Amino acid sequence: MPSLDRRAFLASAAAGAGVLPFLRFLPAQAQGRDTLVTVFGQTINSLDLHRVGTNRASYQVAINCYDRLVGFGAKQLPSGEMSYDYDTIVPELAESWTISEDGLAITFKLKPNATFWDGRKVTAEDVKWSFDRAVLAGGFPTTQMRAGGFSRPDQFEALDEETFLVKLDYPSKLSLPNLAVPVPFIINSAIARENATEADPWAMEYLHTTPAGSGAYRVTRWDQGQQLVYERNDSWVGGDLPAIRRVIVREVPSAATRRALVERGDVQVSFDIPDRDASELADRLTVHSTPIENCIHALCLNTRFAPFQDPDVRKAIAFAVPYESIFQAAAYGRGAPLWGGDEEIADIAWPRPFPYATDPERAREHLARSGFAEGFDVTLSISLDLVSWMEPTALLIQEALAPLGITVTIDKIPGANWRTVALVDKTLDMHLENFGGWLNTPCYYFFWAYQKDRLFNSSNYASDVVHDLTDRALHMPVDDPGYAPLIKEMFAHAIEDLPRIPLYQPALNVAMNGASGYEFWFHRQLDVRPLTGA
User: Fold this and answer.
1) Do 185 and 268 sit in the same domain of this protein?
2) Residue 314: which domain range?
3) Pfam families, from UniProt (predicted)?
4) How many Cβ atoms sit within 10 Å of the Cβ of residue 127?
């Protein structure tokens, strides 16, 4: 993996404008109202979210091509932009549901006219097979299901063809919302079973490249590393039929190329654009810039790396980080600062500024008290899919730590490999991370990022106290008198132990030229279903 210095970074930025020959692979203009072209900078590495190692960019397939029992509604933000509504659950494959008085059973009635792409009726048996798969697949999907109280196949029962029962071990505020996230999608179990093997009972290899769903769109072409093509399913009953018949999703690594394409009108949507482009394009194109709920851009310190096992080393780095410079260079002031907060924890707002700020003298004091007073060498890893904010951030951290005797080498990792090495293997000593919790509570964020062995706990942080506090708070109603004290205690441990150092809360930026109907979603992927043409 190549190392990066300031000269190389500036050279690569200057070269960005020279990659416009890529345009010849794209349509010269939009192909009418029937086709919409989008671009983004990440790499889709699988069409099956349940597969181990599937990256975030690939989640869009589960969103656009598969249905869930329920979904989230939509709301208008104070800015006038549209967003998902966490507080409103709406039907998707289920036409109705009832919750027992004790909160331990949820019974869903399926829409009788719901069909898969091959015309077969969607049944409760398909839902059970899909839920069984999610809780047994392992890794991220299984842990995500567990967050809502779903952990075993015996919790799911097909009462008849159109009635599906979920049995809970305990009532939870997260159960119903957790069925609206991308993970519990409904698969055509007949097709999956036909392509399963004894070694692959859940048809992971087949569904990796060939989705089998009932969703609004189906994948008609996937050229890995280049493009994905969606075609509308005219028989979809999960919501209002989309206006766009065909959507082409292009992978364009160069931010400069993506900007040129959307400015010229060669594409209608450029998704997840850099903050700088969002700032400069806002007066010429429609630019949506939405703060990402429950999301933090953070510097993560892997506790398997000896220096980071020393609390004074972690605090030295926290006081050395040039927060304001990073916020301006990487975020162009968009989003919200997460440094310089009060030491007193008076509320349970999350994300929240930690009580650290740039203070070189305090950084030197902490390092002097540590077992690594003379400094050390460390690798800071970043993802090539996220260079727009990770590169300038890494360079500024590299410069800030050098006076302490901490020599930082920056490595760039291909986006398709990032999730495996950072989150599955957890082998990166120091790295940048941008986890955002799907369910909008602080305990849910801690469940993923601070509990031992969780996928997004890429620092390998292990605290029995924090693990227990999170378990106790996770399913408790937010208005329970015992909830806030648990959350405040969790915050205190995270601030003191510092396995991840918050930098800022990011915004998700989307530029549009010849399209409308964009809605922000917590999963940070493009939902193409509500989009319309010019």
Assistant:
1) yes
2) 297-505
3) SBP_bac_5 (PF00496)
4) 28
